[in-house]
Amino acid sequence: MATTAEPARTQPGPDWDLPAVPGDDFQPAWDQQLTGSHAEALREFAEWVRAEGLPDAPDAQLVKFVHSCDYDLEKAKKCAKDFYWCRKEMPDFFTNWDTSLPNIQGILDVITVAIVPRRTPDNSRVIINSLRTSDTTNYVIADVCKVSLMLLETIFLTEPTVGGIVMIHDLDKVTFSHFFKMLWSMPKKMQVYMEDGIPIKRDRVHLVNCPGLIDKALKLMRHMGRQEDWDRMRVHKGGDYTELHSLVPPECLPSELGGTQPSLEDLHDMTVQRLADFKEIFRKHS
């Protein structure tokens, strides 16, 4: 009986710096030794976590909180409280992180998501997402969130002191129906998590191939949410990526965006396989 061959994996490039998927004996760690005030901040934060009765965790899992908040203890404490509160209040979003499940496979037929395997010169990791179709029938916000959370978790576990995250959203196939679904379907608690509970530095957000009507709608929405989040956003209309390249080097972009990395589809396949390989790590450490 004929069998379906497993898709060929994208071979790592010579300039890739994405950490390998951990083995079964994985223990959280990080590659940056803290000294001075940073080391003291982590020590004080770890003592506070234990005193607060928050989930016990090694320093390698706590460092992401202080690092993402520039070692400001009060900000790190708030981030940690929101992080653990949201996970407790929304268990459905943080369990069953398994790419073989029908709902995850279904949303991966609708969206493209990719982690670029080369950091920017300022040590940030680039994440890109786009839509495969403008049809919103199978565009399920809860599942979109779940895939995004899984991807971020791989960074928490293997790169907790990364310089930041650069998000690139390709809006080529986005419609107002997608916006309405997002506004009406996104749980309020998830908004709290996205705004304050994610322990990672957020760099600029780039909206590429942005349709004119969507750009106008975004300008009308600027009074919503936090101004600092809007200030981080850059809109790129049309197929001119000159400004994007001035902020994110081509060496950190897929070929569709004028970059030197593999195609977005190849990076998507690599990313989905990476999420699949993290299944047991998620179960044990997330």
From TrEMBL:
Region described as Disordered: 1-24
PROSITE patterns attached to this UniProt entry: CRAL_TRIO
Domain CRAL-TRIO: 103-265
Residue ranges of the TM segments: none
Coiled coil: none
Alphabetical list of Gene3D superfamilies matching this protein: CRAL-TRIO lipid binding domain, N-terminal domain of phosphatidylinositol transfer protein sec14p
A Gene Ontology molecular function term of the record: phosphatidylinositol bisphosphate binding
GO cellular component, one term: membrane
Domain of life of the source: Eukaryota
Protein name as it appears in the record: Alpha-tocopherol transfer protein-like
Organism: Thrips palmi (Melon thrips)
Gene that produces this protein: LOC117646832
